[in-house]
Write a structure and sequence with these properties.
Blueprint (H helix, E strand, L loop, with lengths): L1 E10 L3 E4 L10 H8 L3 E4 L6 H16 L8 E5 L10 H9 L5 E5 L5 H14 L5 E9 L9 H4 L4 E11 L6 E6 L7 E3 L5 E3 L1 H23 L8 E4 L4 H11 L10 H4 L6 H11 L7 E9 L3 E9 L19
Parallel strand pairs: 1-13, 4-5, 4-6, 11-12
Antiparallel strand pairs: 1-7, 2-3, 6-7, 8-13, 9-10, 12-13
Bound molecules: oxa(dethia)-CoA.
The site of oxa(dethia)-CoA (UT7) has 20 residues, from α1, α5 and α6.
Pathway: Lipid metabolism
Protein name: Beta-ketoacyl-ACP synthase III
EC number: 2.3.1.180
């Protein structure tokens, strides 16, 4: 028995902000593109519901996977900018989608949150507690952005992405590693003033080391070399960081997915958004081996190897997923 990604979906707010919308902060399109690769980002309206946007992404992931809402046993949402403090958005999203009384909760682990949620989903399936888990990353970072600070305002975007994680009968077993270092909270945090502060240059260097080193570790544990990766999908914070990681790993540029130019840094939503966009661009084929890596506030980090849509995935209506009494 193993675990695979069965489908992905994305949802972005309609409002697009280009780099030119930030020139009043004494910045320029040239600086932002050269230092980060970002060209535009999306902005959720101040009175809009993030849960509604996340529901759209989750609905698209379900449609892409062919898994029906009734077959989802757990819903996990990674976010640091939920609509309300409690309950988490997962319960609202599950209800909006007609998922019947699943285990549903939110995870907060900065930009690594999606990989933490995905690791939980994999463990739940491997332990037999679930067959299909819906994992979403959703952020309205505009809610915690200091819109007068050029050091951070140009980097952040809003959006939501989701994947359906499913049991499969054979194929590659996922290999994941997560970690954190609380001695480095000061590098990136959101304090009581509710605004994100970070020391970008110091994070840059740690990010390359953490993502490259932990991707090497999960590859080694899976018995794979970097050449086995069909697509490397890293947290989309900065194109320069991602290229530095891929050079360290020896992954060719054409096997690295980038959408930071279109969506900027969307924290927990970044990797599922990238997966959904890669799918839309026909860059994922059944059985593709994906390398995933993230880092963020904590510092926290994660890396993993998992297949896209394993041909051995258990179908939602198949006997393997029926009557397991796991709810
Ligand atoms: O999601 C995880 C969390 N965060 C990150 O991943 C961020 C990681 N870090 C980065 O992406 C990069 O470090 C940044 C994009 C934040 C900055 O790029 P950099 O090449 O590391 O620049 P720097 O911090 O060394 O700053 C260079 C200069 C500074 O001016 P001085 O001190 O050299 O005069 C900054 O004040 O660039 C200045 N600067 C800007 N200039 C124009 C910083 N932001 C801007 C800006 N426009 N938006």
């Amino acid at each position: 028995m193993t675990v695979t990604l069965a489908g992905a979906g994305a949802a972005l707010p309609e409002r697009v902000l280009s780099n030119h919308d930030f020139v009043h902060l004494d910045t320029s399109d040239e600086w932002i593109v050269q230092r980060t690769g970002i060209r535009e980002r999306r902005r959720l309206a101040a009175d809009a519901s993030l849960a509604e946007l996340a529901t759209d992404a989750c609905g698209r992931a379900l449609a892409d996977s062919g898994v029906a809402p009734r077959d989802i046993h757990q819903v996990v949402v990674a976010t640091s900018t939920a609509d309300r403090i409690s309950p988490g958005m997962a319960v609202e999203i599950a209800t909006r989608l007609g998922i019947d009384r699943p285990a549903a909760f939110d995870v907060s682990a900065g930009c690594s949150g999606f990989l933490y949620a995905l690791d939980h989903a994999i463990a739940a399936i491997e332990s037999g507690r679930a067959d299909h888990v819906l994992v979403c990353g959703a952020e309205a970072l505009s809610r915690i952005t200091d819109h007068t600070d050029r050091n951070t305002a140009v980097l952040l975007g809003d959006g939501a992405g989701a994947v359906v994680v499913s049991r499969a009968e054979g194929g590659l077993r996922p290999s994941f590693v997560l970690g954190s270092d609380g001695t480095r909270i000061d590098l990136l945090h959101v304090q009581q003033d509710k605004l994100l502060r970070m020391r970008g240059r110091e994070i840059f260097e740690s990010a390359v080391d953490l993502m490259a080193g932990h991707t090497e570790l999960v590859l080694e544990r899976a018995g794979l070399g970097a050449e086995a990766l069909d697509l490397f999908v890293a947290h989309q914070a900065n194109a320069r960081i991602i290229h530095a990681v891929r050079r360290r790993l020896g992954v060719p540029a054409e096997r690295v997915f980038l959408n930071v130019d279109k969506v900027a840094n969307t924290s927990s939503a970044s990797i599922p958004l990238a997966l959904a966009h890669a799918g839309e661009q026909q860059l994922l084929h059944p059985g593709a081996v994906l390398g995933l890596a993230a880092f963020g506030a904590g510092l926290s980090w994660g890396a993993g190897v998992i297949t896209w849509r394993s041909p051995d995935a258990v179908r939602p209506d198949g006997e393997l997923s029926a009557g397991r009494g796991v709810r």
